[in-house]
Specification:
It is found in: Cell inner membrane; Cell membrane. By secondary structure, the protein is mainly alpha-helical. It folds into 2 domains: about 120 residues, no CATH class; about 240 residues, MetI-like fold. It is built from 17 helices and no strands.
Length: about 350
């Protein structure tokens, strides 16, 4: 098992390198680089993309130091060249990429172009919000899906099983962002009821400081209720059906028939024998479910509910073309995903020692 873990750890390096290389290459062809963002702000145009109605390649020009756009802005070429040197765009793309990856391997993500703060400090500041959202969403998904999946397995083929399956599939088919908007409209003062707040993870500082410890906990859950529900809805279907199928597979095995023949009560058979075997694959998949919720919902959900997490940070950085923040958050997301993928495999082995990934590879 040690050699398997070592191989997986070594595989993280080229995989992460490939992820960063593809995204870095794509930015070379995206219009509106950071230099043009600065020039647009200096000239008061507000939106750099107003100059790209014709669909030109100004973005790649900015990245490569081309001065074809300078004349239209009426700015000295020396000033543009100085900006390029400050941002490092006077160097070839390959050199910039290799330098960036060398810094990232040492967890040196540089400084944001527009926030005057290091990217690492930004990630440290925003990461707890995204992790909090992902953990609560995953936990609630498990707390609801496991009992529901067990009940569906016990009542397989009944009207309850049919109707719950239909409801689960419909919920799974609804995009997360659409469900989030629906929750805002219904329960956050959009058009109907003002029950939950529409933004933020807690109340304002003036209100927050006056709350008791119990009041702060209640305020936190009050704010996070709608974002967690919106990010959890898609995970219900997979977990519920996985739980149901795992239980159905175990119920049909010989040891269950033998236990029933010995006169054991159905509840004792179900929770004393079937449960611990059927739950192996469900529990072992916890890291993978967390990553799917963490990655899949953070960008959209955090943006809609104005949660100051990594997803929203990445979105704002992409709009502003803040490349150090974009690539820094991408590197963190990719590294977390790859490490949690390894932890998911190790979880399978820890829960079920019969699984041996190393022997399967030989």
């Amino acid at each position: 098992m040690t050699s398997y873990i070592l191989r997986r750890l070594l595989l993280i390096i080229p995989t992460l390198f490939g992820i960063m290389l593809i995204n870095f290459a794509l930015t070379q062809f995206v219009p509106g680089g950071p230099i043009e963002q600065i020039l647009a702000r200096m000239e008061g145009s507000g939106d750099v993309f107003e100059g790209f109605a014709g669909g030109g390649d100004a973005g790649s020009s900015a990245m490569q130091g081309d001065d074809r756009y300078m004349g239209s802005r009426g700015l000295p070429p020396e000033f543009i060249a100085d900006l390029e040197r400050q941002f490092g765009f006077d160097k070839p793309p390959l050199e910039r990429f290799l330098t960036m990856m060398w810094d990232y391997m040492r967890f040196d993500f540089g400084e944001s172009y527009f926030r005057s703060i290091s990217v690492l400090d930004l990630v440290k500041e925003k990461l707890p919000v995204s992790i909090s959202l992902g953990l609560w969403s995953t936990l609630i998904a498990y707390l609801v899906s496991i009992p529901l999946g067990i009940r569906k397995a016990v009542r397989d083929g009944s009207k309850f099983d049919t109707w719950t399956s239909a409801a689960i599939i419909v919920g799974y088919a609804i995009p997360g962002f659409l469900f989030a908007i629906l929750l805002l409209v219904l329960f956050a003062g959009g058009s109907y009821w003002q029950i939950f707040p529409s933004r933020g993870l807690t109340s304002g500082r003036d209100v927050w400081e006056t709350l008791s410890p119990l009041g702060k906990v209640a305020d936190y859950f009050w704010h996070i209720a709608l974002p967690v529900l919106a990010s959890t809805i898609a995970a219900f279907a997979t977990l519920t059906l996985l739980t149901k199928n795992s239980f159905l597979d175990e119920i049909r095995k010989q040891y269950v028939i033998t236990a029933r023949a010995k006169g054991l009560a159905e509840r004792q058979v179900l929770y004393g024998h079937v449960f611990r075997n059927a739950m192996l694959i469900v529990i072992a998949g916890f890291p993978a479910v967390f990553v799917s919720v963490f990655f899949g919902g953070s960008l959209i959900i955090e943006t809609i509910f104005s949660l100051d997490g990594l997803g929203r940070l990445g979105f704002e950085a992409a709009v502003a073309r803040d490349y150090p923040v974009i690539f820094g958050t991408l590197f963190v997301f990719g590294l977390i995903g790859l490490v949690v993928g390894l932890l998911s495999d190790l979880m399978y082995v820890w829960i079920d020692p019969r699984i041996d990934f190393e022997s399967r590879e030989t």
